[in-house]
Each structure stands twice: as structure tokens, then as C-alpha cells.
Amino acid sequence: MNLVRAWLSWLAFAVVLSVAAGARAQAAADADEGPSHLIFPAQRLPLRFSHAGHLAIPSVTCTRCHVPRAPRPDGGDDLLPREATCAGCHPVDRAHPSTIAQSPRGGCDLCHEGWTAAAPMRVARVEVPVPNLHFAHARHADVACERCHATVRTVRLATRLELPGMRVCIACHRPGGARDACVVCHVTQPDGRLRTRFEDGVMNPPRWMTGLHHDADFWVGHRASAAQDATRCAVCHSDGECAECHDGRARDRRTHPNDYVTAHAVDARMNGDRCGSCHRASTFCANCHQRVGVAPSSPVSARGFGRFHPPAAVWTSAPVTSQHHGVEARRSMRSCTSCHSEQDCVTCHASRTRGGGGFSPHPPSFMARCGSLLRASERPCAACHDDLDALRMRCR
Predict the structure, then answer these.
(1) Which partner for 165 in 32, 127, 132, 390 could form a disulfide, CB atoms 3.0-4.6 Å apart?
(2) Do 193 and 237 form a contact (C-beta atoms < 8 A)?
(3) What pLDDT sits at residue 55?
(4) Domain count, the chain
(5) How many other CB atoms are found less than 10 A from the CB of residue 369?
(6) pTM score > 0.70 for this model?
(7) Confidence of residue 216 (pLDDT cuts 50, 70, 90)
């Protein structure tokens, strides 16, 4: 009874852990992963500034400092404040930058980290790379700033982490709402497909986009996503990328490792449906087997190449040597069964009364261990021997 209680306790504990792990995984999948470093490249902001402190002042609003300027050539815009914007509250006297004492203070070292009067030109520059995104604030003028930049009232220096993630955007850009095509925001290549390769990496759909995130198992499961809606794949991929793998010119070694051709028949017999997801037996398999000489319909010239086996004078007809097929079969039966079935063996090795050639498959010392093999499985013996009762008497 104590053992039962202990087992039930461990089972309950395992269930709790499993549920908790599933909840954490689901929460991670549901969470917005934040702004992409590929869309918003790394910034350099050697500044002293507090958004929380400035927005606590009643007269300060977002649009007071972030004033739109002329659009960029790519259609985006630049709202970063310049010195003239700051000088409206912080008087700046470039002739005497370190002696300004007005309130609010306006010395260069108020905002610029590392500034010194002795080396004023060595101050680190602010660098905000152009985002890989099409966006115009003017088209979103009716949207409150904090709907997209939700954390600016709680942070000091705002960085790219305060920029919106994709889930913020698709709250409005969805079917029935604002236009939801990917090209509305994402930059494209000359042929219209999305640009996915950038200096810092390759863009990947977020985890919460079910079936589209390219994780370690995507090469196995991508066909389900493609079958559901191939137009989603075509947003980034061309037909040529699919053909590179699916027409046989390129072999993905995660699917077919080196020398797979010598053992693929075993997998085909065990799980033909998986092979059929890419290959067609009536065309791909039949054509290949006929071409290399392993099909019954192969030309005699193809079968005479000796691609897989040595000549018959060595492989089957001669006395048993190191090159004889019997030696190779005992060494690695799996290699033989990758192409041959049991029927191929019994064609020669079955007794003549059973339609075989009567050639014994057993070596001279076989009788010493035939009993243990018979007790392990009688089926192989029944392929050649008619009277199993007599065989049991002989092999003990």
C-alpha cells in the first residue's frame, strides 16, 4: 500500500510538472518576442536622458519634442529631436558650453556622456540606423503614441526596446482592419519577395505564428504549412528554392545521409508513406531501379554492369570464399535486405520439393547451433523445411 501511495504521489507530481511546463511553453509562444534586431538594427545612444522625467512635466508631450521632418527616400520618417528642439528649454551657448548655469541647465555634459571642455569634439556620436521597415508616422496620426510605445513613461533613456513588436502592428493590420499584406511594412527584393537576409542575420517568422517559425524541426514539418497555404511561403521563397530539394538535384543530408542509397529499401518497406511524401514509386523509384539494373525489367546491359555484386563466377557459383555472397550476408544481412526480400533467397536455398534450387544455406558447423536458432524462431526454417517435427528431433 505504501508503494502504491508513493507511486501515485510521484505520478501526481509528474503531471503537475508537465502541466506547468506546457503552460510556460504556451506563454512563451503567446508572448510578443519584442522588436526584431534585424528590423531595428543596434543603436548607439551615449546620452543622459529620462523619458519618464520629461513626461512627468505637464507641458511636455511626445509631439513637442518628436517633430516630423521631410520623409526619407525610402518613405519612412525621422522624428529624433535635434539640438534646436532641446534648446527650447535647455539654453545652449556653444561659446561657453561648460559655464551655463540656467535652470533648466543647458551644458553639453547634461546630455552627452563623456563630454569634457578639454576635448569637446571627442564626445561619442549618437547612431540610430535606418530601420528595415516601411513606416510613416503621418499615416498613424490618429493613433495615440503610447499605443505603440507603451513603456516610454516608465523608462529613462528609451532605446529600440521601446519600439513596437510585430504583434502591436497586427492588432490593427489584420483582415477587416488596416491592410495586412507583409509588403506594407517589410522591405522587399526587386522581384517583390520579402528581403529576409540582412547584415546581422536571417529574418525568421516569430514563434507565435503557428506553423511558420523556422525552428530545428521545420525541415520535417514545413510541408504541412505549405499544404495548408502555399501563398504564405511564396511571400519569402521562390519556386526555385523548393525545386532545389524536391526535384532531386540537391539532397538534404538530414533526410538522406551519406550512402543512403545502399540502405534506403529497408526504410521504404518500414515506412513507405514517408517516402511517398516526396517520391512516387511508379515514377521515381521504378525509373531509378530500371536505370541502374536492379529491376526485373532492366535491360540486360544494365544488369551486367556488376554495380552491386562481383561476377557470378565469384559471387554465387564458386566455392565459398571471402567474396562469396554467403559470407557477405552473414556479415551484414541488413545490406542484403535493403534490396532483396526473403523470396530472393529461397529461390536458390529452398528444397527442390518447395520449388527451390536445393542449395543449403548452412555452413559445415551449423548443426552445432541449429537447435538454439530453431527455438528462437521456427519461421526461417519453415521457408525450406516441410517437416518441422522431424527438424525438432534433429536439432536439439
Answers:
(1) 32
(2) yes
(3) 92
(4) 3
(5) 10
(6) no
(7) confident
Indicate the pLDDT class of residue 314, thresholds 50, 70 and 90: confident
Nearest C-alpha neighbor of 203 from the set 227, 244, 241, 237: 237
End-to-end CA, the chain: 46
Residue 270 and residue 224 share a domain: no
Cα angle 204, 206, 208; round to 5: 150
Percent of the chain whose pLDDT exceeds 90: 15
Q: Is the same domain home to 328 and 355?
A: yes
Enclosing domain of residue 291: 260-303
CB contact at 8 A, 262 and 338: yes
Strands (E), the chain: 197-198, 201-202
Asked if residue 225 and residue 272 are part of one domain, the reply reads no
Task: State mean pLDDT over 15-38.
Answer: 54
- Are residues 332 and 385 both part of a single domain? yes
Residue 145 domain flag? no
Question: Does residue 353 belong to any structural domain of this protein?
Answer: yes
**Are both 324 and 366 inside the same structural domain?**
yes
Identify the pLDDT of residue 119: 76
Decide if pLDDT at 25 tops 50: no
Same domain, 316 and 298: no
Q: CB-based burial of residue 51 (10 Å sphere; 0-12 exposed, 13-18 middle, 19+ buried)?
A: buried
Burial of 317 (0-12, 13-18, 19+ CB in 10 A): exposed
